[in-house]
Amino acid sequence: AQTVTQSQPEMSVQEAETVTLSCTYDTSESDYYLFWYKQPPSRQMILVIRQEAYKQQNATENRFSVNFQKAAKSFSLKISDSQLGDAAMYFCAYRSASGNTPLVFGKGTRLSVIA
Amino acid sequence: SQTIHQWPATLVQPVGSPLSLECTVEGTSNPNLYWYRQAAGRGLQLLFYSIGIGQISSEVPQNLSASRPQDRQFILSSKKLLLSDSGFYLCAWSDRGNLGTEAFFGQGTRLTVV
Lengths: 115, 114
Fold this sequence. Notes:
Distance between the termini of chain A: 41 Å
Strand content of chain B: over 45%
Radius of gyration of chain A: 14 Å
Helix content of chain B: under 10%
Largest interface: A-B, 24 and 22 residues
Mean pLDDT of chain B: 92
Shape of chain B: globular
Structural class of chain B: mainly beta
Number of strands of chain A: 12
Largest sheet of chain B: 7 strands, mixed
Shape of chain A: globular
Distance between the termini of chain B: 38 Å
Low-confidence stretches of chain B: none
Number of strands of chain B: 11
Structural class of chain A: mainly beta
Mean pLDDT of chain A: 94
Oligomer: heterodimer
Radius of gyration of chain B: 13 Å
């Protein structure tokens, strides 16, 4: 079974600075999808960014970008120019590309943004 | 556009009482449906998922059950709640025809068993 590991329970960053959240996963599959979700204090789950494993190019969405290292099974999230509104729990998730399987989530990283 | 409704938002139930949480999706057909639980300060634990009416997969042996009586309706139940059932429950759906799309989540239900 696939597993997702987020080794940083908590992180903090100064406003306007850059922070990187780590995620590793374990799979024997070659085709899959990876996601980063944000859960603000409202607890609504919001998709931040998506990466397709067959694409070598790292996904970017405005201030959010990923460093996808397929061989190392690593999928880190970089947040540039951090804003107070970025404070939230961040979850990394994996989904197989074969069959209708559910997303598997890591335990999350709580990000604090310091003004 | 697609929407997901989950209710109630908050629930306080005594130990031993039954539970029924409901989730419905609008604007799509044949979705994959999921129930996740988030304990305090922890990640999302998959409880059940369904790829069709009456087709339920259970991920964790526990005091809970799920049913899908209609294509876009997913219900989480318990006959007798335990203190350990307290947590934040999230319903989600994804497009069955496109595995690359994300899961879309409801607003969640905060359950406190007292």
